[in-house]
Amino acid sequence: MNTFLRENAPRWVILSIDLLIGLISIISAYLLRFNFDIPDEYFNIEKINSLYYVIPFFVFIRFISFFVSKTYAGIVRFTNTKDATRIFIVLLIGSIVFLSADVITFIYLKSFIVPISIIGIDFLANTIIMIAFRIIVKFLYLEYISYNKQKANVIIYGANENGITTQKTLNRDAGKKYNVVAFIDDSLKTKGKKLNGINIYQKDKLDSLLHTNNISMIILAKKGCDTKEREDIIEICLNNKIKVLTLPDIDEWINGELSFNQIRNVNIEDLLERPPIKLDEQQIRNETFNKTILVSGAAGSIGSEIVRQLTRYNPRKIIVLDQAESPLYDLELELREKFNYQNFRIIIADISNKKRMEQIFVKSKPCIVYHAAAYKHVPMMEKHPSESIKTNVMGTKIMADLSVKYKVSKFIMVSTDKAVNPTNVMGASKRIAEIYIQSLNSISKTNFITTRFGNVLGSNGSVIPRFRNQIEKGGPVTVTHPKVTRYFMTIPEACQLVLEASALGKGGEIFIFDMGKSVKIVDLAKKMIRLSGLELGKDIHLIYTGLRPGEKLYEELLNSKENTLPTHHSQIMIAKVRTYNFEMVDKSIKNLVITLNKDDNYALVKVMKEIVPEFKSHNSIYERIDREIEALNQSKSVLIETNIKKINKQKEKMEIV
To answer: Residue 567: left (phi > 0), alpha (psi -120 to 50), or beta?
Structure first.
């Protein structure tokens, strides 16, 4: 039996079995037709309808039909609906041949070879038995391999509806591979109880369960599991080298039903998530409902998420603006197919092209602008400061000026924590853009609002996709410095706060977001390696590459001269910053443009430092400018002190006289 199930049976064996089934079917048909009492005439060798002729005739026809159609050629244990359909058709054709023979013998001999009812019974019996034989063999094979394959023991964390659904999904989709041995839940209501016949244990029993039950994986299915609790569970599992999986959000289940293939590995984003943000949905709706909204940089990670979230509030139209062709196309398909949203217009354009931007403002007449377009890659902008100025400063100026000219009610700029005490060109360019729209707010009816936050998980250029790619390739994983820390926030979370801040803002504010705790990048890398099931130093290596040009060890959300004011939202604060005179700022920007046209990076960065005095370059070729400025300031200080001394001496002489 084992050999039969493990190996492919020879074709002649299957053909012989099929012919045997055919023989049994025809004999059974006669017995059923005559209530197991076949009349003697069917045993009379002198008659044409004698069983001595009929049975060989039936078997011969079946042999020819099976041989021609090769019903015996398929592997029985892999029988599918196509094989069953083929058997049905072949047997039906054979039965039609028998009927044809009956018609011919009746015309010429006035007698049937086989009663028509027997042909029908034989067809049904033969079809059922042949298909049933194959199904039984397939079933026995699956049971055999299931029995001989050791099941993996699984623990489900969460004795709730999600936990029950997870167990049912495992049994339905992968029950042959996995065996749920326990539920873990800290609820006092479930203590010492069973769920679907499986024991429910408290969380403090998890460690011992992992050691005594040879657990292969844990599935996190608990509703409302906070980050600390999730971290504790994952840490226990990682220390015991146990795989950790989690469920997707309920709204991602297919037709409201969980599929085993949707249960995924826990990733680093799950550990960095925070409790869901409570938004003032009605206020956001009041701000955006039935209004035309322009989103620049709409193909980027932040811009595209702003577009997705805006679709919930029924604006009149969303102008989806970016210069990246392929990501724009992908977003267009997503809006139409996934969101079933049609009230949008895709525009490919460069925000630094003033003429093109004005055409868009004239035609679209936006009421609100979300300005997310920017160059954000620090090392790249350090090498190309002119492009940083062209897009981040001049592009923002063009968008802001047009918003004033065409009476946009609100302009919301997405800024960055790198604009605080900038140490690189990118951060300084964003700070100049902040200064410009702040000063412009004081002389215009358009309300200019800035939102400032740190790194977002999974964004373009984020460290996490880079680490993930390095781990997939087998390493090494590269970290710039062992002390580097960063703030992190999920893309949806950041964009929700942008929408909330835009509804809250009255103009001129810089809103900063509660970014939570600063995360050490090296710890992030190590945890990602462990989550991948790899061992640091054995399966994959981690190396330090040194700080990149313009990179800080620590990011800040406020500079030393700033403090914050609270808002009604606990995760949004208003930065108190110094005000700027628009005419002076505008003059500085014009000077920056003149320098931009000279194609001199040193001169350009020097002007940037004049506009943003706190801009001190780190690990950059532009540190030379800081030294020059410092030396110049020292010379001025010495000169001033010398002049003061001269004046004092002259006063003393005059007093003596």
So the answer is: beta
Question: What per-residue string of b and e applies to 535-572 under the rule 16 or more CB within 10 Å gives b?
Answer: eeeeebebeeeebbbbbbeebbbbeeebeeeebebebb
Rounded-to-integer distance, Cα 358 and Cα 350, Å: 11
DSSP calls for 436-490: HHHHHHTTSSSEEEEEEE-EEET-TT-HHHHHHHHHHTT--EEES-TT-EE-EEE
Question: Coil, helix or strand for 232?
Answer: helix
Write phi, then psi, for 126 (nearest 5 degrees).
Answer: -60, -45
Radius of gyration over every alpha carbon of the chain, rounded to an integer in angstroms = 39
Residue tagged active-site, from 291, 317, 376, 418: 418
228 is catalytic: no
pLDDT digits (tens, 9 = 90+) for 109-149: 777 777 888 888 888 888 888 888 877 777 776 666 555 45
Beta strands in 482-532 (DSSP E): 485-486, 488-490, 510-513, 519-520
Q: Give me the residue spans of the domains in the chain.
A: 2-148, 152-266, 287-456+487-516+559-596, 622-657
* H/E segment holding residue 416: strand 410-416
Secondary structure element (H or E) that encloses residue 263, with its range: none
Q: Residue 172: pLDDT band by 50, 70, 90 thresholds? A: low
- Please answer whether residues 493 and 277 qualify as being in contact, where contact means their C-beta atoms are separated by less than 8 angstroms: yes
Beta carbons of 348 and 323 less than 8 angstroms apart = yes
Q: What percent of the chain has pLDDT over 90?
A: 24
Q: Is 451 left (phi over 0), alpha (psi -120 to 50) or beta?
A: beta
Average pLDDT value for the chain = 81
Highest mean pLDDT out of 20-24, 50-54, 299-303: 299-303
Class of domain 152-266: alpha beta
Q: Are 549 and 424 in contact (CB under 8 A)?
A: yes
Look at residue 326 and tell me whether its pLDDT is greater than 60: yes
Q: How confident is the model at residue 431 (pLDDT cuts 50, 70, 90)?
A: very high
Mean pLDDT on 98-116: 78
Residue 449 contacts residue 507 (beta carbons within 8 Å): yes
**CB contact set of 191 (below 8 Å; sequence gap of 6+):** 200, 202
Strands (E), 547-654: 563-566, 572-576
User: Are the C-beta atoms of 400 and 442 separated by less than 8 Å?
Assistant: no
Q: Is 283 helix (H, G, I), strand (E, B) or coil?
A: helix
* One-letter amino acid for residue 301 of the chain: S
Closest CA to 371 of 300, 432, 421, 462: 300
Question: 287-456+487-516+559-596 belongs to which CATH class?
Answer: alpha beta
Structure tokens at 367: 């009421």
| Residue 569 identity (one-letter amino acid) | H
Listed residue (417, 414, 380, 374) closest to 394, CA to CA: 374
Which pairs count as long-range contacts for 89-96, CB under 8 Å and 24+ apart, including other chains? 90/65, 90/66, 91/62, 91/65, 91/123, 91/126, 91/127, 91/130, 92/123, 93/65, 94/61, 94/62, 94/65, 95/119, 95/120, 95/122, 95/123
With beta carbons less than 8 A apart as the criterion, state whether 625 and 602 touch: yes
